Sequence to fold (596 residues):
Amino acid sequence: MSSLALPERLRSAGANTALNRRRLLFGLLVGATMAGLVAAMVATLSAGGFTLLDALIVFCFALTTPWTVIGFWNAVIGFSILYFARDSAALVTPLARSIRGDEPIDSRTAVLLCIRNEEVGTVSRNLNAMLDDLAATGALGALGVFILSDTDRPEIAAAEEALAADVQARWRGRIEITYRRRPVNRGYKAGNIRDFCERWGGSFDFALVLDADSFMSARKILRMIRLMQANPTLGILQSLTVGMPSDSPFARTFQFGMRLGMRSYTVGSAWWQGDCGPFWGHNGLLRLAPFIAHCDLPDLPGGPPLGGPVLSHDQLEAALMRRAGYEVRVLAEEEGSWEVNPPTLLEYIRRDLRWCQGNMQYFRFLFLPGLRPVSRMQLLLAILMYVGSPCWMAFVAITLGAGALAPGAIGFAPEVGVPLFFIVLAMVFAPKFATVAHVLAVGRERRSFGGGLRIVAGVLIEIVFATLLAPTAALAHSLLIGRLLLGRSVGWLSQQRHGHSLRFGEAFVRLRPQTAAGMLALLATASLPWTVVPYVAPLLAGFLLAVPFAVYSSRPALGGAMRRAGLAAIPEESAPPAELSALDGPRAIPALPVAA
Fold:
């Protein structure tokens, strides 16, 4: 053994020991908190005895707690790191320090643009802008572009062929651009990428996976390639992807809340996940040799919805990559990696239901041999993220129904139950409030969001937004899981990514179950003591206002007014990056006036 190998192994062993201690501490914190919440719910319902109905309510409540508690502790840890660490990204992802940034690119990277029935103009705009940015760095020779289409609509396929011909002609002699269309999208997106791997994967070292709405700066792309070059055990490097500026009120408010919640959450989760990090399926870099060798997803036994090809491929691929001995890391840096968020409530639900069906397939992989414990837990949490919705709906339905039909059937100790309600509520919003506290405390961060007053106003708007959104989404998840149990499938539906106004009739047709649930909940609440109303009001509002919420949150005119006022603004609006300003898309990104 060389004199250099031993210290390197010792450092690696020391890093693994420290990471295991972090995971043990995190697990203890989460487990103790969940136990405390469940014990408090038992105490709440034990007034006058503890019945089978009480046990059922506690069971439903317990299944809703994992994501809430994990989010809370991620936020606490993430906030501490953000506030006290000089370089939070490097602290939770040490490989971020492993390059200077001027190393030569001596690898070959394939840029995979995965599309299906997409608006071709946006695809062309984003791709050409990324290539212009890369050309300015002189790095085009190290890349190849593959437009991987699964489009099955002839008119869009013809537009894609014209796009490919135009892009190939524009960049001929400077970078290789390949267009391939599969008329049948066997295996969905994972199958699309697998087809690339089988045809061309052996000619490249890495692959950068992009969706139709993805946009990345050349600086970020080359930074990720250099990090992958410098760390041969790194299998997947996921960038932290944020939303582009939007005039859709829904997308604008959603991504403002995500931006504030995601920072502390991602830093906190990276602190304990370490080398078992996430892969979100886009804006991430893959090491192709181990990906091809170890991440081929099988078709599950039986037919859809829970059999057949895997819909949610990304986190499963991350688990398989880690099982093969390669690290999966998230680069917790916000700049240089963007996506477009759903412009309306209906598009958000459409996307979420596809993810829900895909995550339910993870049941088949929970006991796959050789998975790391953290990877196995991530698959379980991905399932619970959606199973928690029907549990929450059942919790509410049983509580309201029993209270209305059989008063006194459920005991309630307000001295425990009321504080428990507010504790859970605070934990739900903890990731958001943690990042808000950090942003407000740091002048540069505060100015990037438009100033303190605009931040506070945006947070208040987003709290109302999240309160209305949560019941509508939870019922949609619950109904889908019921349909899955009956053998009905959602499939892979294309997204409508551009802002558009919804009509009341269109929204009502899609949101009838929410409206009906709201009426039933209102009838049940009418027979309960008035003291219960404040606790039920958010649920009632979410259901009863689902249709007008969907309609008005889709209005681009309202979103434009919010943008001009600087409400729910993100840093890309106060100081537009040159890469985004170069896009000649639906509208330019004007800089906002910035308050202190």
Q: What stands out?
A: Residues 1-11, 585-594 have pLDDT under 50 and may be disordered.
